Each structure stands twice: as C-alpha cells, then as structure tokens.
Amino acid sequence: xxxxxxxxxxxALRSVRDPASGRDIVEAGMVEGLTEKAGMVQFAIxxxxxxxxxxxxxxxxxxxxxxxxxxxxxATAVLTAHRAEPxxxxxxxxxxxxxxxxxxxxxxxxxxxxxxxxxxxxGKSTTAVNLAVALATQGLKVGLLDADIYGPSLPQMLGxxxxxxxxxxxxxxxxxxxxxxxxxxxLVEEDTAMIWRGPMVMGALEQLMGQVEWGSLDVxxxxxxxxxxxxQLTMSQRVPLAGAVIVSTPQDVALIDARxxxxxxxxVGVPVLxxxxxxxxxxxxxxxxxADLFGHGGARKEAEALGVEFLGELPxxxxxxxxxDAGTPIVASRPDSEEAKTYQRIxxxxxEKLAGRAGAKAGPRIVVx
Length: 369
Prior knowledge:
Blueprint: H1 5-13, E1 31-37, E2 40-46, H2 56-67, E3 74-80, E4 109-116, H3 124-137, E5 142-146, H4 154-158, E6 166-167, E7 170-171, E8 174-176, E9 179-182, H5 198-210, E10 217-223, H6 230-238, E11 241-248, H7 252-267, E12 272-277, E13 282-283, E14 290-291, H8 298-306, E15 310-313, H9 318-325, H10 330-333, H11 338-356
Parallel strand pairs: 2-3, 4-10, 4-11, 5-9, 5-10, 11-12, 12-15
Antiparallel strand pairs: 1-2, 6-7, 8-9, 13-14
C-alpha cells in the first residue's frame, strides 16, 4: 500500500533544514499539528521565542515544500513558540510571534464587513447570510466568508454540501443565492471536529481568504465566530476591514458581550457600523401576538450609550429559523415578508455607510497593551 498524503508531506518537509541545528525540521521535532483535509494542509513550526522574528524564511521554505507534494491543494505553515526554550543570558525578551506577516489579503474586494457577536446563539450567522443575500439582490457582487473554523454553519444555511473544485492551487468558491461563498464546512465532513490550536485556526482562515479565487467583489460579508479571539485578530491584521456589525439579543447578558465586541473592534481600529437587535420580540405564528421574551430595546439603548448606530431589530420568528435550517434564507425565499424587508433596509443603510468610507484601503493598526 502506498504512502498516505500526510506521510508524503512529512517526507517532503525533511528536505527543509533548521539553520540553527543543521537537522531537518521533522527530525528536530519542529513540525507540530500537521493535518490534511481535502488537500488543504496546515501545520505549525515550533521555534524558540528568541528566534521567532528570524524564522520567516524557514516557515516559507516549509510551506513551499509541502505545497509541492502531489495531491496538496494548498499549504499553510505558521510559527509557534508556545513551548519556549530558555533564552541565553544575553538574549533580549522577544516580542509577540508574528503570525500576520505578508501583504494584505483580498485586494480585489471593495469593502469587507465583519458580522460579529460577543457570544454565540444570538442569530449572527442567520443575520450575516440574509444581509449578504440582500446586498446581492441590490445588484452588488457579494462574497460570503464563514470565518468560524470550529463551528461552520454556511453549508446548512446555504443549503449545499457541495465540495468546491480546484484550479491548480486555487479553490473556486461555491455560488448560491447570488453569492460567492466559502467555508471550512465545504471541505470537511459535517461531523468533523476541528481540534486545532490558535495558530492552525489562523492559518486556515488565511487560506480561505488568500487561496480562494474570489475575484473582484463589491463587498464581502464575513460571518465571524463569537467572541474576541484569534479569528478576529487575524481578520484585523490581514484584511482592510471596512467595518463591523454587532448582533445581539435584548437581554442583559448578551448586551454585556456585545459591548465587549464593540470595544474590541474599536481597539484594533475597525469602525463599528452599527448594532442589530435579533430576537427582539416573539411573534406567535397562530394569532400574531407579540411577547418580549428577552426584553426589548436593549440593543438600541446600548448603541446610544456606545455612540454607534442602531441598524434595526428582527423578531424571534419560527419562519426565519425554519428557512435558515432549510438553506433558503428568508430574503431570497420570502422577499415580501416584513423580516426580509428589514434585512433589505439594513443592507441599504450599510451600503450608504460603506460608500462614505470608499477609498479607505489601509488596514487597521493593531495595538497590544
């Protein structure tokens, strides 16, 4: 039986030598967390902290060696120094490991908008998909990127499990509901658990941005994972985000996390375009009775307190959930519904705000205190 693709990749990596020890990086135990899914290869190169800033050529050589193996669609190597070796007495403390090196990604996208939330379960992905479809129905060329590596939801919400095809080492995004879309969920089995450390997640996200043939787009909507972690920092470092939209429910615990999300984007220099209150009220499908299950108006008040725009509110309605689960976003399948019209109004307002920021191509500066 022939070697597995992973074994061939490890063999190829033996051609890369560590200049400090003279040994190949596999023999030296520097290759960590190597994974291969549908031809997409991820691995980390472990170096002492004091060598991190000087190891970029080693990282590049390893990445090229892995990418040259037949059957590899794309390869990403990241540097990690989480098991630090004692530094020589004269060595100066090293700074943070540079994982955001290289040119800015997605240069042909006019505006990149992150749809984020401080916590999970607030309907962020449903909001991102419907806003992207709404922008597409308004005549824009729209991309939709699922940045949630651990819990991708786009395959379900777009109603397809199709595998994207490859042209050379470029991945062709899927097209659905007028969008170009990509998610790690299109590349792995539905029940696959992505048990990856932070550097691997950042590498996968960079692949989904840099090695997918997105082409020229007017706007890209990015469905962010919840929280304020690695994916958010990677997006802030590697693409010129035009702004972020924060999704929250009206209840206090969600608003606290939404506040953190706003502060995080402000800290990395990304403008917050506004807040959306999802599950703002419950609408009974039988009698139309309205009930404020999670309170009401909390996101509007929070937006006023934070000095950002309140973009609108959407109800907790059975039809929105059913259509999302069926892969038929309400904006596409029920365009005359009040909820679809609300998404359209929010999309129109985002277009206005983005037009006012046209030409702002410089990426934000990351400040770590």
